[in-house]
Amino acid sequence: MKRIIKFIIPFLLLLIAVYFKIFVEKSELVSPDWYYFFNKVGSILLIVSIAWGLMAILRAFKKVILSKLDTSQEDNLRQRKFLTQFNIMESIIYFLIVLIAIGASLMLFEEVRQLGISLFASAGVAGIIIGFAAQKLIATVLAGLQIAITQPIRIDDVVIIENEWGRIEEITLTYVVVKIWDQRRLVVPSTYFFEKPFQNWTRNTSEILGTVFLYTDYHVPFDALRKELTRLLESTPLWDKRVNVLQVTDAKEYGVEIRALVSAKDSPTAWDLRVFIREKMIEFIQKNYPESLPRTRVVFEQGEQKSTTNIPSKKKA
């Protein structure tokens, strides 16, 4: 019903415009002095109805297209790419339709037309001044167009901007809205994505690797940790079965650094997987190898007494 109403209003305006321009004079219902007025009003209504109708058609076409796009799929790169381009191009077309409609309406009046010619004749210096004043706005609009063409970001992309994790929620000609993980909104100008570096975690695919670091004593059995990591990954649906690696990435005087590298289908799942693995691996070490918890050793060189202090907990008797 709402779609029909959107088309009825411009159609009624079109009928009124045709009546004012053609039938008012033929029907002789008003004084001839009013013919000029009704003719101009009819011309303006005709322009408005055409512009309104074009925008209504564009909105209806967008709904039809969006009904065929399923952005809820895991592999929705193609859908998000098209949606981003369509949204930006829609804003551009709306702007052009309104601009042309206003210009055409103003050109109906001889006084405005002569004023426009006079302004164009003396617009050299004024154009330069306006150009300098509006250069940031122009740059922002051009950046919006460039986003639509090159697509460094797309709707629903996962990005890291200003040290904030979020998803691209809205892209316009002049700004981009990023939905932060805690439901805040970060609004940045379109030029930001061409002037500053940022991370796009879903540029080509949503698959991502996650890391979990553990710090233990030298006594920890690495093979046992690898077996436990594999068991944990196989027990959770968060893992996409691509990457399962446990490596010793550093060895220092107080202990070793162990890195578990795992994979997930997307970044939110990878976060949950990392939290799960970190918690369960620490529980495994606490339960089975408490002596492998990080510890600090103190050795007295001049005596034979040696002492060892466990951190964070004391060794049981």
Strand content: 15-25%
Radius of gyration: 33 Å
The low-confidence runs, each spanning 5 or more residues with pLDDT under 50, are: 306-311, 313-317
The H/E string reads HHHHHHEEEEHEEHEEHEE
> Can you tell me the overall shape?
elongated
Report the major sheet: 5 strands, antiparallel
Strand order of the largest sheet: 4-3-2-1-5
Arithmetic mean pLDDT: 80
Q: Which structural class matches the secondary elements? A: alpha+beta
Question: Helical content, roughly?
Answer: 40-55%
* E-strand count: 10
CA(first)-CA(last) distance: 79 Å
**Annotation field: number of helices:** 9
Walk me through the structure.
It is a single chain. The protein is α+β, with helices and mostly antiparallel strands and 317 residues long. Helix 2 (35-67) packs antiparallel against helix 3 (77-106) and helix 8 (222-234) crosses helix 9 (267-288). It has 9 helices and 10 strands. The strands form 3 sheets. It has a 5-stranded antiparallel β-sheet with strand order 4-3-2-1-5.
Provide a brief overview of the structure.
The chain is an alpha+beta fold and 317 residues long. Helices cover 52% and strands 20% of the residues. β3 (175-180) and β4 form a beta hairpin.
